[in-house]
Here is the input.
Amino acid sequence: MFGKKKKEPKVEQVFNSSDEKNNQDQNNEDLEKLNLNKNAIDENDNGSDSEDLSKFQIDKLEKLDEVKSKISKILQSADVEIVDENFGDEYETGDGSDSDKKKQQDYDELKALFGEGDKNKKKELTLTIDDFDYTYVGQYVDEFDLLHAKSIKKLKMHRKHSKLMKRLLIAASVLVVVAVGIIVSIVLTRETPIYLKSVKLNQTESEYYVYDHFNYTGLYFLAEYSDGTTQRIKLDKSHLTNIVGLYDLDSQNNVQFRAGGNKAVLTFAYQGFSIDYTVNIKEKTESGIYAEYTSGLFNLKAGDIISKDYIRLAITYADFGDEFLDISNFKIYINENGYGSYEECEYKYNQGGFEVPELMTLSSNTKFKITYKTFELIISYVEGQHTARS
Here is the structure.
């Protein structure tokens, strides 16, 4: 079955450590036992002694028989092809064990003997490179040593790594390169977004008098953006978010400051930024009143309306100047003949003025009395005169 045996050549091994030497001694003992048991099995065909073998020894025998069977078939074949499907997968050079160097040497010699061959040849039998390891774990048998079988033309060797795996690795590498290229191009070509960096008011403090309305004229936001540009945004009451202080809101939501406080703080907001505006409130010192009127005021009759077209009343401040009042803010009394008592005129809101009392006809002798808070003003007819002061 095994053919003519030759004397096993003496092989000297170099061990890197005591552990490696001990492991090798153990392997040699197992192999010697394996060979002895194998001879015993050959002599006894019924295999009754096989129960004395360990599982490891049985596996070794089966592997050895399988390799021998493959090589026998290859030697009987007239056309054997060797194809190195592991091209580029040679053992790495460098500091390796003697066993690895021996395997690489045998591998290179097989390639030199049989060449590349016809890769399109149909595979009939595959002998892997691992099958050659039997010479290092079992007994050396000369007739199964392919290095000395000069009649073999070709030997086909099985690829360790599948073609599909290599294709997947190549495809993954291409995808990585494309992804990196896309990311780099996006980073290099994208535009840096411009955002609002800061907002401030061109003015943050001013003075107002009591009863004044807050004036937005001339006020604006100064917005600065991340690219260094600036923009002016006109301030209006839609930007007002809060007020701290004494104030009133009219029907148009205009802010009017009340007496009793010396300061008010208005908060304005724009796109997430808030800025406070401080108002210092001053009391006005009223020093008197005066009226401007027309000569037609003395020609009115009962039922006529004394409107702002006939008379206007202004208040004088010591430190501010003059300010005309709305006609509804003061009162008018009439003395028809210039002597006796004054009769109060009724204010008609729907007509925007005071109504001349019934049965009254005005003339140059008529006198008017105007009152506002504690101030009182008498108006008499004087040719060419159209103002009167308290």
Notes: Residues 38 and 61 are 8 Å apart (CA to CA). The first strand starts at residue 196 and ends at 201. The chain is about 25% helix and 25% strand. The two ends are 149 Å apart (CA to CA).
